[in-house]
Structure formats: structure tokens, C-alpha cells
Design a protein that fits this description.
Iron-storage protein, whose ferroxidase center binds Fe(2+), oxidizes it using dioxygen to Fe(3+), and participates in the subsequent Fe(3+) oxide mineral core formation within the central cavity of the BFR protein shell. With about 160 residues, this protein is mainly α. The chain is built from five helices and no strands. α1 packs antiparallel against α2 and α3 packs antiparallel against α4.
Length: about 160
């Protein structure tokens, strides 16, 4: 099925974001592992895998629309220097992704590509209710109990 070129371009832009988020989470996960924060390592490696699944869904849709997935492009990564900065950078990225998803969902609606819209709505729900929620909760814990107490719970 030939898709609308503007939708395909927007899906490729989302793909770049998902692959970039996957890379950022991957690096952060291994930094956590190196520092001995095994709970954070496990969770953030899981987030990297989730982003890879999101990318796979976008690739499948782009191919279905007879487009060519751009798997080479990446956005700049924001690798943190400490745990709190890493969590903040990841949350900022998730806010960016959610905003971008909302805009592409609106474009899909405008171009009457309801199936792509539906796929993106699932990705948005996962981004908001899982990724963003968990990161916001971690930063809230740091604020309430202090960084050192938080870090003790993550070893």
C-alpha cells in the first residue's frame, strides 16, 4: 500500500528518535552496571529493549507503506555524568518523543492514515504510562529521600 510521503517522512523521523533513545538507554544501562547499580541497569536495559520494539513497529509500518526505513540517522545523545543527570536526560528525551508522537498522530489523522495513527497511539501510551511515569517516580524519590538513600536502594 503506497503511503503518503509526508507520513512516511514523519515515521522515519520518529524512527530516528526511537533508535536514539535506544542507544542512550543502552549506554546509561551499562554505566549503571559499571557503577554497581544493578536494579537501574536491569530497568534501563529493559527500556532500551522497549525502544527497539518501538523502532521495529515503525520499520514494519514504513515498509508496509512502501517507504524505506532510515536506520542510520540518530539524534544527539545526552549521556549523563551521574545517576540523577542520567535520569533527567532520559526523562527529557521521553518528553521530546511524546511531543513528537502527538504531532505525527495529528498528521496521520489529517492524511487519513488511521492505521498508522493507531500504532502511534500505542507507542504514545507506552511512552507516557511506562517510561515517563517510571522516570518521574525515580526523580521524585530522589527529591523526597535524597540521592544517597535512593542510590542505596538501587545496588
Amino acid at each position: 500500500m503506497k503511503g503518503h510521503p509526508e507520513v512516511i517522512d514523519a515515521l522515519n523521523s520518529l524512527l530516528t528518535g526511537e533508535l536514539s533513545a535506544m542507544d542512550q538507554y543502552f549506554v546509561h544501562a551499562h554505566m549503571y552496571e559499571d557503577w554497581g547499580f544493578n536494579e537501574l541497569y536491569t530497568r534501563i536495559l529493559h527500556e532500551s529493549d522497549d525502544e527497539k520494539l518501538h523502532a521495529a513497529k515503525l520499520i514494519q509500518r514504513i515498509l508496509f507503506l512502501e517507504g524505506t526505513p532510515d536506520v542510520a540517522s540518530r539524534e544527539a545523545l545526552n549521556i549523563g555524568k551521574d545517576v540523577q543527570q542520567m535520569l533527567q536526560n532520559d526523562l527529557a528525551y521521553e518528553y521530546h518523543v511524546a511531543d513528537h508522537l502527538r504531532k505525527v498522530i495529528a498528521l496521520c489523522e489529517e492524511k487519513a492514515d488511521y492505521q498508522s495513527r493507531e500504532i502511534l497511539e500505542v507507542l504514545l501510551d507506552d511512552t507516557e504510562s511506562d517510561h515517563m511515569y517510571w522516570l518521574e517516580k525515580q526523580l521524585g524519590l530522589i527529591e523526597r529521600i535524597g540521592l544517597q538513600n535512593y542510590l542505596q536502594t538501587k545496588m
